[in-house]
Structures are given as C-alpha cells and as structure tokens.
Amino acid sequence: MVFLLDTNIVSAARGVERQAREFQDFMRSFPSLRPISAVTIMEIQFGIQRERTRDPGFA
Q: Are 5 and 40 in contact (CB under 8 A)?
C-alpha cells in the first residue's frame, strides 16, 4: 500500500525523535522514498519563506 504524505506529516517528520513512538514506527516502516504531492512541496516552500523572516535558524 502506498501513502501520499500530507504537509503536517512531512513537517512532523522533521523532528521525528520528538514525536510519539507510534509515529516514529510509522515513519520507519516506509522505504527511503516517501511520496509527497506538488501541493505539499509548495506549502513547505511557503512555510520556509515565512519562517526566514521570523526565525532564520528554524527555516
């Protein structure tokens, strides 16, 4: 089965060690290739651009 990961999942995976054990296990169950949509990529790019003005270290 293939899952298309949404923006909130991709964002949470950035700090997977801070997430619940179930989420960590879920992310480890995927191969290195995790499918995401063009919309998710766009939302992440917008979020990074927004954070650059607020907190450059986080972005």
A: yes
